[in-house]
Amino acid sequence: MAGLTRGHGDAPGPGCDPRAIVTSSSSTARWDSRPGTEQDAVNAGPVTEPSMWALDRAVALHPEGEGWSGQVPPHWTPNGAAHGGVLFALLVNGIQRIAPHPHPLSATAHYLRPTAAGPVQVTAHVARSGRAHATVEATLSQHDRPCVRALAVVGTLPAEPACTELRPPPLPAPDACTSIAPRTHDGFMPRDYPHDLDIRLDPQVGWLHGEPGGRAEIAGWGRLSDGRPQDLVSLALMADAFPPPIFDVVPTTYVPTLELTVHVRGIPSGQWVRGQFGSKAFNQPYVEEDGVLWDEHGRLVAMSRQLAVVNQRDPA
Question: Is residue 65 part of a domain?
């Protein structure tokens, strides 16, 4: 455990006691299946009633048959296919509704085929349930064809921050960073990139200024445009909300995800997350992408890895 510290923000915390990890990870949440209990509300995820928050409306699920029905809004379909992050959030919403423990600790989604705007169906079932952890499988389908399949481990997140050597990247305040919104009109991002996202990158990212730097690394701030507070459902979206770092190396506007894994390390608070993403291997057309997210208070909340396909375009 040498080098690991527990702390917030850029300031190092005290040395992390391995005994504290054992104690905190041994806590369990017992599932109370009685209707109307507080535990039911915890596992229900975003409500199905009309919400003031755009993301909650986008990932709302309504009971139907053996699962739920949902609706992918048209503005969440850049390049004609649904945004992978919002599909992941829909699945996490379904997983939380039946999970016998309150928190998704790890979730992996495989994208089988593109999903269009319009009705979708989500089904989920508990594959295995134990005292401390459970495994949940979920599928998102459209027109009776599976589009995304996910496998998640659920449990109870420790209250203490994670012990980690990772520190949030030094960034200017969000107002001093560069919004990607104007980039949707110069060929680097789809013109209809979801307007519900407010992503602001470090001004030093080269492709923002038409001068790719040749390093597949980006950092920046992200939030929901309407100011919705972050939670575990929005965290699933934010893990896939930032532009691919390969943009700074390869001329492309479309990098669809084949597989995405997110490890949740804490419950976020506040509106903003600070993200750092990078790619260490690229063999055309496949690229991996590693990401880390901190909440606006500097607490590590998620780590991600995905495999994606790079569709190159003619630089001319």
Answer: yes
